[in-house]
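Complex 306.
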Amino acid sequence: MSNCEKKWVYVINSIETNKETIASGARTKELITKYGFNFKKSYGQNFLIDTHVLNKIINSAELTKDDYVIEIGPGIGSLTQELCSKAGKVTAIEIDKKLIPILNESLSEFENLDIINEDVLKVDLHELIKNSGYGSAKVVANLPYYITTPIIMGLLENKVPIKSIIVMVQKEVAARMQSKPGTKDYGSLSLAVQYRADAYLVANVPQNCFMPRPNVDSAVIRLTPLETPKVEVRDEVFFFEIIKSAFSMRRKTLVNCFFNSGICNSKEEIAKVLVECGLDEKVRGETLGLVEFSKLAEKFLEQRGL
Ligand code: SAM
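Predicted structure with S-adenosylmethionine bound:
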């Protein structure tokens, strides 16, 4: 979309909602100057200043007034503003106390918003959702990149009742989350995410859509958590131990990976398990999917007499 078209989207938005968007360079500068706010790199503070990207995030979330939304890291409220307009209730969790007075001003018109000044990793999301009265939540966020993986894995692993997760992450992390066997980005994160969710790339986002500009490209990804994992696994801890071991030395065969990480202390036994699973003895982890890894985990458990 050209800059001219972008301007029209912005104007149309403003007309539709009759409000000034926070997601613009001018409004962002105005607010941070007024409050003497300094961006903190350590908190991953890169604020969204592009309404086109904002619309893609919001459209992908398919919000209605029946939705409860949890936003992680509202910043000065650019995304929060749209979330509050579309959803029934929004809880925004922001670690930086210097942003709270700015949010109180920029979002003062919304009565369906709660702001929590806390580290998201310390918040009990089960409790939050239970107290919301909505039963489940959608998570929508432009994530602080330094804690992308713990946040996403926490949401997926702790069985929090989440309908969808629409998040801005570093482009290469988005690629890893949705990549398939045999591709260069495929690895343990791909398997961990795809075991529990369907992943869909919503948009690639260039650096100039943020203030300040980050030094990496970004992407919006939508994860839809599954009710039951994609494959049946008897011992999840062991299943992920196998996967971690398989990708511990990318260029090595599985026989060497499993031997070196102590999954089994006989290379002959490992080769036997591989063959029993219908795999080549020289196979590498990067070509195997969830089904093959679940078979391997089961065979090793049987081999241990479990
Ligand atoms: N949502 C805003 C936007 O799109 O412009 C800001 C996004 S910025 C990439 C990430 C935000 O997460 C910042 O406001 C930062 O202070 C906040 N943040 C960083 N670490 C956090 C944590 N552990 N818990 C909650 N918020 C955090």
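The radius of gyration is 22 Å.
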